[in-house]
Amino acid sequence: MPRKSFRAIQETNPVCSKIDYHVQWPNLLTEPFDKPLGKTWTKTCRALSTALSLSDTSVFVLLMMVDAHLQADDEIPAEALGRWPKAGISLPDFKKLKEGLIRQGLLSEPGKPRLRREKNSGLSALVPHPGLLNYLRCGRVEYLDLAQRNDKDSLLRNCLKCAEESDNPFDEPEDIQTLYNEIAQQQSSPLIHYLNNQQYNLREQVAVLLLIGHKLQHKDEVPLERLVRRIVQDPIDRLTFVTAWSNPEVSLLTKGLIEPAQSHGQRVTHVRLNPAPIQSLLPVHVWESLRPSIPVSPFLTIEPWSKIQEVEMIFPKDFDQEVQRLSKTLSESGLDRYFNRLKVARLSPTLMVMLSGLPGTGKTELCRQLARIHQRDLVVVNLSSIRSKWYGETEKHVDRLFASIRSAQAASERMPLVLFNEADSFFMSRGHVRSNVSNIENTLVTQFLENLERFEGLVFATTNYTESMDPAFERRWSFKLAVPSTDDQTRFRFLHKALGELVPEPVLKRWSLHHQFTAAQLNNMYRKMLLLDGEDLSENRIEQILLQEINGWKSNSRPQIKGYSA
C-alpha cells in the first residue's frame, strides 16, 4: 500500500473528505462500480467530459488523481486501474492519458519532493488544477474555464514563458528545453506541421517559437546573438550559428517567417518575425496580439498628434524662414522625396534635427507643433527609465529603447517624430575613466551613438547646453538650428497677442523695447493674471507682474536666508 503523509491521517481535515463536495463520484481508488455508484459516476463523467472535452477514460484518470490528492497518496494503486468498467486500463495507456492531462494543465507535478522513492514512477500521483477542485467543491462551471487549456494554447504559453525577460539579472529564464519538448509533443499542431513542411530544422523551429513569444510581448526585434544564446548551449556551436545566421542569404532568413531587422555592413545583427504566413494557424485572439500596435514601454511617452493643442509660434523673421523650410520637408510628400534622394546616394533615410537655445525660447513646443501640423505622433524618450540599478542592464535598456521606437514606427500610420528633450542629459561628453560610474556613462553614450548611427526615421532633440554634449554627436544631426532669443518686434507681437485688449499699443511697444523676456515667461505672466481674476489689473500692476517673472529668483525682493556665522 502507498504510504500516506501526516496530513492524510488527520480525518477531521475537511480538505481530505468529499462529504461536503457539491459534485459526487465513487472513490476510484477503493470502491467497486456497483449500480448506485455507477449512476453518480455517469452524471459526473458526462459533466466533466462535456466541459473539458475529455474522453470517459481521461475523466476516470483525472478523478482518480483527485482522490489520491484528497487522501495525500503518493501513488495510484495498480489494482485501481483494473476498476475501469471497460476492461481496465493498461499502464502504457495510463501514462499517455496522464501526459495528455498534464499538457492541458489539468494535472501538474507536486511542488515538494515526495516522502519516499516511488516503486513505479508511472503510477505516481499528480496535483489537480485548483480550478478543477473548486468546481468539485461548489459546482460552479466557471471554475473549469480556469482549469481548461488546449494543446495549441500550451505551445503558445511556453513560447511566452521562454521569451520573457526580466530587469532583474538574477532571475532565471525559463529552460529552453521546454520548447524542444513542446515541439516533440505537438507534432499534430498546425503551426509545427507548417514548420515541418517548410523544412525548418529543430533549432530553426525553436527560433521561430521564441520570436512568436517576443512578438506577443510587443518586442518586434531581437538581437541575433541573444536569440542564438537562448537556443544553443555550447559556446563553440553558438559562434557557428551566429556566423551562419548573420548571412542575409541563409535559408532561415529567406523562408519568409524570420526576416532581418537591422544590419551592420553585410551582417544581420537583429531579426524579427513576419507573422503573415502563419496567420491562419493561430487563434484569432493571438493573431490580434501579433498585429502592429503602439508599444507600452517605460522608455517612451507617446503623445498622439490629435491631442496636441494648437499654439501659435512667433519667431524672428530669419529663423521663421528656417522653420518653414523644415516644415515643408516634414510633409508626407516632402519627406518621401528627401528619403528617396538619401537612398539613391546610399545614405540611411534619417532626418535628425537639433534645436539649441536658451531656456524658454520654445524649442520643445516647436517640436510639438510640427508633429501636430503634419499629423505625426510625438514619441518622447524618458531618460529616467533607461537607467537601471543593476550593472549592465542600462546598456540593454538602450537597445530596448530603440526597439520600442521602431515598434512605434511600425504601428503608426505616419512616421512618428521622436523627441530627445534636454538632450545634453542623454548625450553628455565622454571623459577619462576614473571610476566604474564614469565607465558606465561612457558606455551609455557609446550605445546611443551606435544606435543613432543605424536609426532610420525622424529624430528631434532639444538642448540648452551644447557645450556639455559629446562632439561625436554633432555630425549625427542633419539640421542644427539655434532658436534665437526674442527681438523687439517678436516681443511686441507676443505682448500684443496676450495683452492687446488690456494695454494700449504704445505702452506695449515701450515694454518690448525695455524688457527682455521669452515666450515661456510671458506665458507664466498670463497664467498669474488669470489667477488674479477680479482684481484691478492696471498697466502698472501688469508691468509689475511681468518684471517679477523676468527677474525670477534674482529678484531683490526675495528674502535672503542667513546661516550661522563662524
Summarize the structure.
The protein has 24 helices and eleven strands. It is of the alpha/beta class and 566 residues long.
Please explain how this structure is put together.
This protein is α/β, with parallel strands linked by helices and 566 residues long. The protein has 4 domains: 6-147, no CATH class; 151-290, no CATH class; 300-482, Rossmann fold, CATH 3.40.50.300; 488-554. It is built from 24 helices and 11 strands. The protein has helices spanning 6-9, 35-52, 56-70, 91-103, 130-138, 142-147, 151-163, 177-185, 190-197, 202-216, 224-231, 235-245, 251-254, 284-290, 317-330, 332-344, 363-373, 383-386, 393-411, 436-454, 488-499, 505-514, 519-531, 539-551; strands at residues 107-108, 127-128, 221-223, 258-264, 267-273, 300-303, 350-356, 378-381, 417-420, 457-463, 479-482. It is elongated. Mean pLDDT is 79; it is low at 1-16, 113-120 and 557-566.
Reconstruct the topology from this structure:
Blueprint: H1 6-9, H2 35-52, H3 56-70, H4 91-103, E1 107-108, E2 127-128, H5 130-138, H6 142-147, H7 151-163, H8 177-185, H9 190-197, H10 202-216, E3 221-223, H11 224-231, H12 235-245, H13 251-254, E4 258-264, E5 267-273, H14 284-290, E6 300-303, H15 317-330, H16 332-344, E7 350-356, H17 363-373, E8 378-381, H18 383-386, H19 393-411, E9 417-420, H20 436-454, E10 457-463, E11 479-482, H21 488-499, H22 505-514, H23 519-531, H24 539-551
Parallel strand pairs: 7-10, 7-11, 8-9, 9-10
Antiparallel strand pairs: 1-2, 3-5, 4-5, 6-8
